[in-house]
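Risk register update: the risk of archive-format incompatibility is retired. Evidence:
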Amino acid sequence: MTRKAAPKKVVPATASIPGLPEMPTVVRPKAANEVPQTTAEWGLVAYAGAALGRIFPLPMGELIVGRAPDSAVTLLDGEVSRHHARIRVTAEGIEVEDLGSTNGTQVNGEAVRGTLSMKAGDRLAIGGHVLKLVALDPLERAFHETLLDLSTKDPLTGLSNRGSALAEFQTRFGLSLRYDRPLAVVICDLDHFKGVNDTYGHGAGDFVLRIFGERLMVTLREADLAGRIGGEEFLMVLPETDLAGARTFAERLRKAIADTPIPLPTGRLNLTISLGITERTGDDHEAGQLLARADAALYRAKSGGRNRACEG
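Archived output:
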């Protein structure tokens, strides 16, 4: 299966308050001593379900809510249809429409028949998810995003942390099993990383991990998952990908690391990685079976000379 790397994500500029993203302001005439107002934007905040804490922005226009990776609001839940509902955001207001989903769509406990108008504070229930419609000012949005990052992200690399990555992998495995869709797993380890810390110091080691995280991110598609599950060990979950696609991904990542030395104050560091890859088969009924095979394949890659990918 052919895979294409997603375009690099644009990182917003930082605001005057450290850690908070820059938000646009409304420019309009103001009275003397009036404090300039900042824009608010509509969004859905997940109050229940696997996406707990996430903010889904609602720009003007139409957005699809569903399980499919191409949905604007993607909810990974077996009770959610691929294209479950449609949300329309206009200057006049916000409407939601059920798209003939299997389990229906509800607003404040009322089943959506045709289209239904929504207002701030309304709760949208889709599968096991409850999403609250809110008008987010910049500070409130930054607050929600900071809480989510603290609970789900590895602070050094910006990737998912161990708990978040393994929980998300379990969800994606369940969907793959239920709907018999391809799923591949890659486990990666930085070769001789202990030597980096011992030779150059832990500060240099942290810098190497950050650079690896950046290079990993640009090889992923939007639907892929990457997490740091150990000191120098990383998990990648590739939905809608078979073993051939995982092999292509692993080789692209291997070359991205091996072909470009990492600049350190003491000189350029040649870093390599070892990878173990596998795909879900009909005999896999638990997510741990994939992890065990990928881990065994990683061990063979390391014992076979490193700087390579092996299949399990």
